[in-house]
Amino acid sequence: MLTAEGISYKIGQNTLVKDISFSMRPGELLLVLGANGAGKSTLLRMLSGEKKSSCGHIKLYQKEISDYPPQELALKRAVLNQQNIVTMAFSAEEIVMMGRYPHYKNNPGQTDLNIIDEVLQLCGITSLRTRSYLSLSGGEQQRVQLARTLAQIWDIPGALLLLDEPVAALDVQYQQQTLAIARQLAKRGFMVLGILHDINLAAQYADRILMLKKGRKWYDGSPAEVLSSKSIYEIFEIDSDIYTNPRTLKHFFIPKDVPIELNNQISI
């Protein structure tokens, strides 16, 4: 179980996250929505243990996340960051194998090798395994990093998986695939928390949506409970219509046109 109790984060006089409380259990896919600067990535870094909250408590299975030794924490939570900088020409398979480092001392065992095969296949990158990571497209690199993250906790049901903009560099097919993987992992008993900008993807896949504004929790509930024209305007300041797919009963939103007028006398 993951619990956040009144957590805040400040840099100088600026408060990036303010007094957020929520909890999640294994088996849940929680997606976080909010405009740019709402505090989404800061919140994720706090939950991962990368940033220490200015006040409040973050507990992973009743233990303060800051009290976990790095090795033990690596066996309970994995993080897919929005940006992953690699400067050496590792192969895709070597990058994915890095996710198994917490599980062995010298050489990977057969279990580690089997898991690498499984996550490579799941993420659709088996054909890339011997390719240099530096030669891959941005979307291919993102799928390799997803496989690395999955490999880290693949055999630890109940672990926490944190995804920061996991579909940002992906085309439509792999956006759907990535969120489908996240949903299936939740069904297998993992806790999955991700940050998205795509409201319709969140509505399609999330068990629960947390909406942030100016560092605060604004809405928290199922997609049906929190997604409305009113809530979307409050969070994103855009008018929209909300519809229900009659086949799936999932909500989806269509933004209304934004009126923009340009001066006719534009100098070039």
From TrEMBL:
SMART domains from the xrefs? Answer: AAA
Question: What species is this protein from?
Answer: Pedobacter nutrimenti
Q: Output the Pfam families linked to this UniProt entry.
A: ABC_tran
Q: What is this protein called?
A: Iron complex transport system ATP-binding protein
CDD domains assigned to the protein according to its UniProt record, in alphabetical order: ABC_Iron-Siderophores_B12_Hemin
Domain ABC transporter residue range list:
2-239
Instruction: Decide whether keyword ATP-binding is in the record.
Output: yes
Q: Give yes or no: UniProt keyword Transferase.
A: no
User: Which terms are listed as keywords in the entry?
Assistant: ATP-binding, Nucleotide-binding, Translocase, Transport
GO MF terms here are: ATP binding; ATP hydrolysis activity
Per the record, the domain of life is Bacteria
Q: Gene3D superfamilies, from UniProt?
A: P-loop containing nucleotide triphosphate hydrolases
Give the protein's biological function: Part of the ABC transporter complex HmuTUV involved in hemin import. Responsible for energy coupling to the transport system.
